[in-house]
């Protein structure tokens, strides 16, 4: 099962992919292009037609799929789907490695690692941080967590999907990073749509508004890094210097956003949530601190 031999003198290892949504299909094609024999299984067998035409083998059952490869990659809706699909094939798991790239909670990832070990298999949690069309490209990266030796054994194959970033032994870590990244992503998307709706209410078409808004979104990273090599260092030290911006200043802006949104009859859920962070920090006496002080109310909500 170890992939550390000379790749020029051996046949590529067989891989199984279970779950053929856009992500599963993209991973299958990437592995096929690299020369790996790939066996696939999906609840709706018709979804496999495209990858089978490209060279994948379609398994009739989950058991057949598992037994076809030492490395079994799961791309499913959630972790419960793994149990539902593999329930009748658990006696075939021993000696194999499951890499679950499905989204769920860190605790469920840890439970899955324990469940997998109970059936004699190794387990890696993974989170793919690009959309399906980017899988296998230089822009792709995937977070993993789990045993070092398991990661090392399959590093060559997993690297094909995207640059692997192994976060450590805890199987929940990759899922935590994935959820944190998506928390940022989804909140940003909601903010983008809220801003677009605000401008739309003023008569500006989305095709005019979005270029301006996306430019602002692109600049957030540069603003955070301005003058600081690592903007997280101050947070770790509990330092919130208010020399460039303060909770009071940002809080006033959040008030204006709520008022403007209300006057436009827009949904207030997002701006009210943001406003609450600043109001809590001001109430706790941190109005002169940097806006990063709002992390306190996020860490310890009332």
Radius of gyration: 23 Å
User: Which stretches of 5+ consecutive residues score pLDDT under 50?
Assistant: none
* Number of distinct beta strands: 8
Mean pLDDT over all positions: 94
Major sheet description: 8 strands, mixed
Give the CA-based shape: elongated
Strands in their spatial order, largest beta sheet = 3-2-1-4-5-6-7-8
**What structural category do the secondary elements indicate?**
alpha/beta
Q: Strand percentage, roughly?
A: 5-15%
Q: What is the subunit organization of this protein?
A: single chain
Q: Could you tell me how far the N terminus lies from the C terminus, measured between alpha carbons in angstroms?
A: 50 Å
Please tally the helical runs, counting DSSP H or I stretches of 4 or more residues: 13
Q: Determine the fraction of residues in helical runs and give it as a percent range.
A: 40-55%
Question: Can you offer a commentary on this structure?
Answer:
The protein is α/β, with parallel strands linked by helices and 302 residues long. The protein has helices spanning 22-33, 49-53, 62-67, 79-86, 106-118, 148-153, 155-159, 173-201, 206-225, 232-236, 247-263, 269-283, 295-299, and strands at residues 15-18, 38-41, 57-58, 71-74, 97-100, 122-128, 141-145, 163-166. The radius of gyration is 23 Å and the shape is elongated. The mean pLDDT is 94.
